Amino acid sequence: MDKIKILVTDDHPMVLEGMQTMLSQIGFVVITGLARNAYEAMELIKANLPHIVITDISMPEISGIAFAAKIKNEYPGVKIIAMSTFNERSYISQMVQNGASGYILKSAAKEEIEEAILTVYEGKLYMSVELELNKKEQQEINKIPILTSREKEVLALIAEGFTNPQIAAKLFVSPYTVDSHRKNLLTKFEVNNTAGLIKLAAKYGLV
Amino acid sequence: MDKIKILVTDDHPMVLEGMQTMLSQIGFVVITGLARNAYEAMELIKANLPHIVITDISMPEISGIAFAAKIKNEYPGVKIIAMSTFNERSYISQMVQNGASGYILKSAAKEEIEEAILTVYEGKLYMSVELELNKKEQQEINKIPILTSREKEVLALIAEGFTNPQIAAKLFVSPYTVDSHRKNLLTKFEVNNTAGLIKLAAKYGLV
DNA sequence: GAAAAAATCACCTGAAAAAGGGATTGATCA
DNA sequence: TGATCAATCCCTTTTTCAGGTGATTTTTTC
């Protein structure tokens, strides 16, 4: 079979180096590019159209989250594997929201990266095993609701402390509409008031 | 002159790989070991006595901070360069307290690592230039309100999504009392509704 | 032992949110 | 082409919240 084309994006040269070394030891992949930021990466994607983009989550300028959205928008076929350090797993949900198919830690060993690439290449979802410290968290991730873009907007404004009328004015829609979105948010998050909503949203890194 | 002997400690294999590649490109250094944790590192220090130990700050089991103290205690002559990601710079002072002579970010390029090694080897202090943007951060930390224990209780229950009457029942007090606490919380956090309250509380790690 | 802070309780008002119902339009997709 | 979903809008009732004002009783602190 053809080799799986991979592009790696990370603002840390050290991580790029490490990734390059590791990936070069995997027979079935070929590195089509190493980028230090989303701009460079977009150029390289345009030039080479990789199968999979492995990207860091926290990068200056354009974050991995925004980057993922951009990729999915312009190249829906490209799979994305998010990469982060341990203490950033609150962003998992955001990455998944924005189209990531996999999530690995920077502490991942070669074998895990290999598995992640294969799994994602087959169209499945790969979540780092080191993430499942317990079953509860795993279950929780599956519980993270998928929000529409409008719902995300409304959620963000609610979190900022705006009331329905204020939000309605900002979005140029009727307060009734905002109320609908709000109700849908409560339903999706399975909570019964704003406090629970914001707490969960904060937990999942959505606000 | 003799080459500068360096040992690198990091729990992320990728970072070790990257460091190895980078350091091997610097003429005047030689890697005497790569360790994934403080235990391994102590063994390697014993065996080879490096001039400089470059260590990650956040590691499981023994943190970089404790590790630095250990090194300085047993091998006072060994210089230490702390390494971290961007969002950990609050630990700088602790590392310096514990004997680190240098601080670099994992995003450092080869040239900076080179400079850091030379500077530290000469007995001087090296601080990554990229660190200085924390006046706002400092201010924000000072803004975190001091809550009474009762307020913390109430805040936690609000965050759980309970209403004032429910909280009152749980705490065996009047709903009026809960309401008072709630209002004090809003005042202390300088917000005007629950959404803002929970968002801030989540940000500060209080819920 | 006095002063300050924390915790408690009370009442009122008006605004907002929650919970319930339903309806229309347009886009997307199988 | 029929189904689904997102986004929009509408209505009512009940409950909760936010803002204000004021007071008493513990507990802590100086």
Structure overview:
The structure is a homodimer of 207-residue chains. The first copy, chain A, is an alpha/beta fold. The first copy, chain A, has two domains: 4-141, 3-Layer(aba) Sandwich (Rossmann fold); 145-203, Arc Repressor Mutant, subunit A (Orthogonal Bundle), CATH 1.10.10.10. Chain A has helices at 13-24, 38-48, 64-74, 92-97, 110-121, 135-143, 149-159, 164-171, 175-189, 194-203, and strands spanning 4-9, 29-35, 52-56, 79-84, 102-105, 126-127. The first copy, chain A, has a six-stranded parallel sheet, with helices on both faces. The mean pLDDT of chain A is 82. Chain A binds a DNA duplex (30 and 30 nucleotides) through residues 148-151, 163-165, 173-177, 179-183, 186, 192-194.
Instruction: Name the chain pair whose interface involves the most residues.
Output: A-B, 39 and 38 residues
Named CATH architecture of the largest domain in chain A: 3-Layer(aba) Sandwich
Q: How far is the N terminus from the C terminus of chain A? A: 43 Å
Can you say what the CATH homologous superfamily of the largest domain in chain A is?
Response regulator
Shape of chain A: elongated
Regarding CATH, which class of the largest domain in chain A?
A: Alpha Beta
Could you name the CATH topology of the largest domain in chain A? Rossmann fold
Strand content of chain A: 5-15%
Helicity of chain A, in percent? 40-55%
Oligomer: homodimer
Main sheet properties of chain A: 6 strands, parallel
Mean pLDDT of chain A: 82
Radius of gyration of chain A: 19 Å
